[in-house]
Amino acid sequence: MSAIAQYLQGIGKNVTGSDRLFNHNNKMLIQVQFEKQGIRCFFQDGSGMNACTEVVIVSTAIEENNIEYQKAKELGIPIMKRSELLAAISSSKRTIAVGGTSGKSTTTAMIFHILQENGYSPSLMTGAGLTALQKQGLPGNAWVGKSDWLVIEADESDGSIVNYFPEISVVLNIERDHKEFDELMQLFSTFREHTHGSFIVNQDQTLLRTLSQNSKNDFGTIGEVGYPGKDFKQSGFQILFSINGVPFKIPVIGKHNMENTMAASAVAGAVGISLESSAKALESYVGIYRRTQLVGEKNGAYVIDDFAHNPSEVTAAIKACQQIGERVIAWFQPHGYGPLRFMHEELAQKVSETLRNNDYFLMSEVYYAGGTVNKDIGSDVVISAVQKKNRNALLVNERSTIPMVFKDMVQPGDVILLMGARDPSLSDFAVEVLEKL
C-alpha cells in the first residue's frame, strides 16, 4: 500500500492515507517520510476522505466493517483493491514481476539495483525498503524512474498474482505458506499465461520445472539451465559463488541469496544485461530492510533482524546465521493466528531439522493485528513439538522479557536472530535487544 501511495504521489497524484497507528502528536518515522513527500497522513477514522476523494484503495486486510470502507460506501466513492490498481499501473509499463513464496522482496530489489546501475532508470514498487533508498530518507519500497521499466512483487498469498500481464516474469519457489500446492500451481500457471515475454523459473523446484518455457532462460543449481549457480561460499557477512563461470561477490549472507541472485541475473539477461554487468552491479548492493539485516555487535555477539515468517524463510535465516555464529539463538514471532494454524506442523519439523545441538529456538505469542480470528493454535504448540524432537526450544510469552532472557543466555560468538512480519515495532525491538545485551 505504501509503495503504491509513493508511486502515485511521485507521478503527480494527490494522495492521502490512513493507518490505525498514525498519530499527529507522536509520529512514526514512516509517517514523517510520507509527509515529506507530500502524502497527507491520518488516523484511520475517516477524516482523511471526503466527497472530493476520487477513489479509495484498500488491501485485502481491510474488512468491510472498517470505518473508512463504510464511509467510502456512504459517500459513493469507488473502492479499489490494491492489486487492481497495481495491475492497472503495471499494464502501462514494461513490467518485470517477481513471484514465488519466498525471496520476492530481495529479488525485486536486486533486479532494480542491477537495472539502476546499468542506466535503465526503472520504477519500483515492492514490499520491503531498499537500504540504499532508505539512506536517502525514504521508506525505500518505491521509486519513480525515467524509463518505461517497472519492477514489482507479484503476490500469490491473496491470489492477486493473476491480475498482472508483465513483459518478464520470474517464479522463485513454491511451498505451502498461505495456500496449498495445487492452488499455487494454478496461480503460477495463469501468471505464465499472462506473461507476454520471458517467463523464468527455478529449475531446482520440481513443480516449477513443469512450468518452464525454455530452460535456457531459467536458473538453478541442477540440470541444464542458462543461469546455474555453483561454488557457494559464505565468508563473514558476504557470499561468493559463480554463475556460468562469472564470479559474484555480494555483501549479504545466506545461500538463499545465491538463489535470489540467480533469478535477478536471469531477469537482467532477459532485459539485455550481461552476467558480468550484473555481477559488477551487485557488488554495491547493500540489501533491504529486515532481511538478515545486521543490527549491530555487542560484547562479542551479533544481533540480526529478519522478516522471515514461513518455515522455509525461518530455516534459511537460521542456516545463514549458523555460518557466522558458534551458536544461534533464534526468536520468532508468528505474524498471525491464521498463518500459524496453516504452517505450525511444518514449522516445527523444519526448525527441528535445522537447529544444531547448541542452538536455541524461542517464540513469543502470536502478533494479533485485529479482526476476526480463531486463536486455537498458539506458539506453545510449535515449541512443544520442537522440544519433543530433543531440540532446545523455549516459550517466552511476554515479549517485553525477551531482551533480559537474551542477556542471561548470550555468550561471545553467539548470533541472536530475531524473526517476524507485519508487526511495525520489530525493528525497534531489535535495537532494544542489542542495547540491553
Summarize the structure in words.
With 437 residues, the chain is an alpha/beta fold. It folds into three domains: 2-77, Rossmann fold (3-Layer(aba) Sandwich), CATH 3.40.50; 84-282, UDP-N-acetylmuramoyl-L-alanine:D-glutamate ligase (3-Layer(aba) Sandwich), CATH 3.40.1190; 293-435, Mur ligase, C-terminal domain (Protein-Tyrosine Phosphatase, Chain A), CATH 3.90.190.20. It contains 15 helices and 20 strands. Strands 7-6-8-5-9-10 form a six-stranded mixed β-sheet, with helices on both faces. Helix 5 (104-117) crosses helix 10 and helix 11 packs parallel to helix 12. The longest helix has 18 residues, at 337-354. The two termini are 35 Å apart.
Question: In terms of topology, how is this protein built?
Answer:
Blueprint: H1 2-10, E1 16-19, H2 29-36, E2 40-43, E3 56-58, H3 67-75, E4 79-81, H4 82-91, E5 94-99, H5 104-117, E6 123-125, H6 131-134, E7 142-143, E8 149-153, E9 168-171, H7 181-194, E10 198-201, H8 206-209, E11 219-220, E12 227-235, E13 238-243, E14 246-250, H9 256-271, H10 275-282, E15 293-298, E16 301-306, H11 311-322, E17 327-333, H12 337-354, E18 360-363, H13 379-388, E19 392-395, H14 402-409, E20 414-420, H15 426-435
Parallel strand pairs: 1-2, 3-4, 5-8, 5-9, 6-8, 9-10, 11-12, 16-20, 17-18, 17-20, 18-19
Antiparallel strand pairs: 6-7, 12-13, 13-14, 15-16
Helix pairs in contact: 5-9, 5-10, 11-12, 12-13
Structure described in brief:
By secondary structure, this protein is of the alpha/beta class. The chain has 15 helices and 20 strands.
